[in-house]
Amino acid sequence: MKDLHGARMQEDRRQRFAASVLPHLDAAYNLARWLVRDGHDAEDVVQDAMLRALRHFDGLRGVDPRPWLLAIVRNAAWAWLRTRRPGELVELSDDELDAALAVGAPDLNPESLAIRRTERREIDAAITALPIAFREALILRELEELSYREIAQVLDVPIGTVMSRLSRARTLLAQALGAREAGSKR
After folding, report:
1. 23 and 71 in one domain?
2. How far is the C-alpha of 69 from the C-alpha of 160, rounded, in Å?
3. Mutual angle of helices 148-155 and 65-84, in 10-degree steps
4. Could you say which of 87, 107, 132 is where a domain stops?
5. Rounded to two decimals, what is the model's pTM?
6. How distant is the alpha carbon of residue 91 from its chain centre?
7. In whole angstroms, what is the distance from residue 137 CA to residue 80 CA?
8. Do residues 159 and 179 both lie within one domain?
9. Quick check: 166 and 137 in contact, CB under 8 A?
10. How does pLDDT run across 157-174, given as a tens digit for each residue?
11. Best CA proximity match to 46, nearest among 15, 16, 68, 77
12. Domain check: are 131 and 60 in the same one?
C-alpha cells in the first residue's frame, strides 16, 4: 500500500512538472542557444537544466516557473561555458563594459561577425557578438519578453543592473547594425 501511495505521488509530481515547466522548454532552448551559440550544445545544456529543474521542482512552490527555469538554464549554460569555453566568460565590471562601448572593442566589430545575406542574419550575428552579460539580458527581454523584475530574478542582479545592461546591449546592437549599414553603402 505504501509503494502504491509513493508511486501516485511520483506520478502527480511528474504531471505537475510537465504542466508547469515543460511549456517553457522552447524558451529554455532559445536562451541556451544564444548563450552557448550552438544548437547541439544548447540541447545538452537544456537537458542538464531540465534534470536539475526536476530534481529541485519541489522547491518551486508559489514561484513563476518560467523565470525559475530560465535561471536554471542560465546557470547550466554558464557551467557548460566555464568547462568548455572559459575564455568567453571573462567577467567585466560595469566600468570595463562602458570602456568597451566607448572604444568599440575589436572583437565586437560587426564587420567580422555579420553575414550579409539577410537582415535577420545580420541581427543574429550582431546579437551573437555581444558580450554574454549583454546578450543574455537582451534575449530575456526582447525574445523571451520577461519583465525587468523577472530578468533580475533570472540573472540574480538588481533591476538597475538589468536596465543598464539592456541599455548597453541596445547601444552596441545599434552601433553594430549602423556600422554594417554604413559599410554596405560604400
Report:
1. yes
2. 22
3. 40
4. 87
5. 0.63
6. 16
7. 18
8. yes
9. yes
10. 999 999 999 999 999 999
11. 77
12. no
